Each structure stands twice: as C-alpha cells, then as structure tokens.
Amino acid sequence: MAHIALDAFGGDHAPYEEVKGALLFVEKTKNKVTLVGDEKQISQLIPNNFSGVDVVNAPERFGMGEKPTEILKSPAASMNVAAKLVKDGKADAFVSAGNTGALLVLGTFVLGRIEGIERPAIATVMPSKVGGTVLIDAGANLSLKSQQYVHLAIMGLAYAKGILGKSNPKVGILNVGLEEEKGTDTIKEAYNLLKEKFGAVFCGNVEGRDVFYGNVDVVVCDGFSGNVVLKTSEGVGLFVADMLKGSIKNSNLFQKIGALMMSGTFQKFKETIDYRKYGGAFLLGINGIAVKAHGASDSEAIFNALNVANSGIKNGIVQAIKGSV
Q: Which CATH number is 230's domain given?
C-alpha cells in the first residue's frame, strides 16, 4: 500500500479540492494519503470515520508569488512539511499544486539530488498520436549545459520505460530544425553527446510538432523551451475547443444535428487535451518522488496527480534512474 503526502494548501482552490481529490483517491485505490495543512480547516472536510486519510498540521501556506528559496526558511509551510515526510521515510511520495520553484528547491535541498544528475527536471506526458510523449525539462531549468541534456535523456527514458511501459523508447532533442547543424552551440554539443551516449536510441533533432505526433517517445529541452511548449499546447487545446463550441452554436439545424451525432468524438478530443487527465508532472533527478500538479487543479486533477505519484512508487522510478546514471 502506497502512502502519499499531499500539500493540501498548495493550489488555487485549496483545501477543498485537494481534500475532495484525496478522499476519492483513497476510496478507489485503498492507498493512504496524509493531508498536510491547517488541521482545523482540513478536518472539517473529512467525513467522520473515513479511514485511509490522516492530517499533519502545517499552519503556513507558501504563496505562488513568493521567492522559491524562502521555502527553506518556512519550516511550517505545508509544502515543506510534506517534503520532509518523504525525507524522513514517513511517506513514499508527495504531491503539491503550489509554487513550482519552491518544489524544485525542496526536491534539491531537502530530498537531495541523485548522484550523477546535476539538475533535477520536470517531466510531463504530452498527448500524442501514440499514447503520450515525455517532455523533459518542462520548466525547472531555464538554461542547461550540453552534458545536462544527457541527464535529461536518462531520466526521460526511465520514465518512458518504467511508467509508460514503452519497451524500446527513442529520444530526440528539441530544435528549430531537423538538420544536425541547426541550433545553438550548446544544442549542437548536446546533439553529439546524445548520439555518442545512446546510439540508435537517439533520433536526432525534433521540432515542436513531433511532440504531438509521437515521432519519438522522449523529447529533451531546456526548461524555458519546454514550458513554452507546455503552456502553448494548453492554450491551443482550449482555443480549438472554444472555436468548435462557438461554431456549433452558430450553425444551422442540420449542422447541429450532425454535431450531436459527433458528440462522442468531441468528448474524446476534449479528454485528450484536458490537463486534468494527466494530473501532474514528476520532478525527476531527486532522492524521492515529488509530483507537481497544476496550480488550478480541481479534485479530478488532484486525484490524477496522486495516481501519477502512485505509479512512480509502484514502478520504482527513482531506482530506475539511479540504475541508469
């Protein structure tokens, strides 16, 4: 049975959505969740005699706009306390919808880096035609040295194998073109290092569209580029969904009947682009499992973020990375 610590005061809709998502997760999976935050507020949201959930009091909430390094000076902050539960072996993983920078600081300085990994990175699964592409780094490191792209590839491939179940995953490096001579000096150096390290597993340069077509299983990039890809894809998905909705609303009767017959297809499309279905992103490269949920997460997104953490526990993602470095 997995035991996950949840920062119940991290997201925009905390603690109600966090608690609701945690209760659903415990009910469906029979795992255990420790809710970390203001004990009085949280306890009021838990039904009497509900088992599988406990509460650890952490009265401070670390804000989205605060300087990330200040989290180390806030021992009573819910995110800090949740991370220390993992550090002390009292939880197998922790999940937070809070400040991304603070999560990175806690992962690096509280849980510590895996030996051989210079920079922890955020790894998320992007929707693709073949079931998902691992995008790493999705926002932790705005710039990287060439050698650090190799570390990203190691972590991303471990994710693709261990969590997504891909037997022979391939990796590519995000660039402005497919040609080997494209990109900055750092990207060119990284290209050569990846080719030397991974051989046929490395597919060379890929462009943004390849993330969604699934031409490779893992795409490595600096956190600036990765976060732009992530946020742009969210925006495009919402834009297309709104455009479809508006077009149907303004269509004639026969077109509306046709749209009604296509409702199942539209629903499937909506689910494919819905960030809530993907739950959260791993912070990889640290000695523990940490999952970052979207700041606007509702209970469904929290439920799925807990599932992401659970998959990392069951599939030994930390051990897999250690064994690959």
A: 3.40.718.10
* Number of structural domains in the chain: 2
Give the C-alpha separation, 7 to 274, whole Å.
22
pLDDT, residue 259, reads 45
Q: Is the peptide bond before 75 cis (omega within 30 degrees of 0)?
A: no
Please report the pLDDT score of residue 45 as a whole number: 95
d(CA 60, CA 285): 27
Same domain, 28 and 104: yes
Provide the pLDDT for residue 265: 47
Contact 18, 10 (CB under 8 A): yes
Other beta carbons less than 10 A from residue 50's beta carbon: 10
**Using omega within 30 degrees of 0 as the cis cutoff, is the peptide bond preceding 137 cis?**
yes
Same domain, 82 and 168: no
Give the containing element (helix H, strand E) for 308.
Answer: helix 299-314
Residues 109 and 127 in one domain: no
Q: Are residues 172 and 67 in the same domain?
A: no
Residues spanned by the domain of 87: 1-114+285-317
Does the pLDDT value for residue 147 go beyond 50? Answer: yes
- Higher confidence at residue 249 or residue 43? 43
- Check pLDDT > 70 for residue 123: yes
